[in-house]
Amino acid sequence: MRPREAARRNPALRRRVSLLVIAVVAVAVGAAVVIAVALVQRWAFTAAATPPGVGTTVIAPHQSKAQRALAEDGSDAEIAATEYLAAQPTAYWLTPEQDPPGAVGRTVTALTSQARNEDAAVAVVVYGLPGRDCGSHSAGGLAASEYPAWVSEIADALEAAPDVQKVVVLEPDSLALAPSCGDGDQRFAQLRAAAHELSGPDTWIYLDGGHSGWLPAAEMATLISRVDAGTQVRGFATNVSNYRATHDEFAYAHELSGHLGGMHAIVDTSRNGAATAGAEWCNPAGQRVGEPSGTFGDDVVDMNLWVKPPGESDGPCNGGPAAGVWWPEGAVTLAGASAAEH
């Protein structure tokens, strides 16, 4: 006897079948409601999100090397410079050396929690690309097999904070160095996949845009175009870890944007207050911090941002320690009179 025929002849069985059907339908409806609510919430955050701009407040990360250096001994000038720089809104660099797989997600969660508590945005730099820096002072990065999972861990932590505005600078120097590194096709694919993974609610991604003294705008635009990340990327970041004048970077950003259909930009002003370094990029003497994050922008440049944390060395050159290491003497020079006034 078929189950349906048995249920028709047995009232008790028919009731059990009916209850089972109702339960299944209820579970399905409940699941649909949960999914619908989640989609609506995500849509609401995305629809309400506005890109970074003038006046955007970025956190001064509690995990920064400047903050950690506050516990160290030093001269009065070094302590004053460290205190000043630790208090400035600055991007946090996610590197596999400092925040390896299995730990980087917790770091991102701590950053977004701080941003939520302070009603501010968080800016992070994702810097772990395989073959990073082509073996120069910042050589390192992850193996090609490890990079996607590391990026995914970052992405999951960012997506878990849809209510926080997130600025992501994706792999500085990766595109401008591609012609000399000789691994462009691999880099384009890795950056495309990373941008896809990192995209999410109120997350604004900026690719490497070099700077005004590096590659011609047309050549840089070709490199950015080959990433082909579509609308998942807001724009590009220029002058990261460099010392070029703000005026020159704005002009360069406009020229580059013109080649890219109006793509937006952010400009690193963390160390361009003097802008006298010329072609010297590794701990040049006599430089100063630039205008604070969120001070200015225009129809192309969303905002200026301290991307490179002042006080961290560019590498073992001009008296500095290894790249990324806190350098008290360099911090004093960069902070200058600002630290004394602070």
From TrEMBL:
Keywords: Carbohydrate metabolism, Cellulose degradation, Disulfide bond, Glycosidase, Hydrolase, Polysaccharide degradation, Signal
Gene3D superfamilies in the cross-refs: 1, 4-beta cellobiohydrolase
Active site: D133, D173 (proton donor)
Keyword Flavoprotein tagged: no
Matches recorded under Pfam families: Glyco_hydro_6
Keyword Signal: yes
SUPFAM superfamilies: Glycosyl hydrolases family 6, cellulases (SSF51989)
Enzyme Commission code: 3.2.1.-
GO terms assigned for molecular function: hydrolase activity
Family the UniProt entry places it in: Belongs to the glycosyl hydrolase family 6.
Name by which UniProt lists this protein: Glucanase
Top-level taxonomy: Bacteria, Bacillati, Actinomycetota, Actinomycetes, Micrococcales
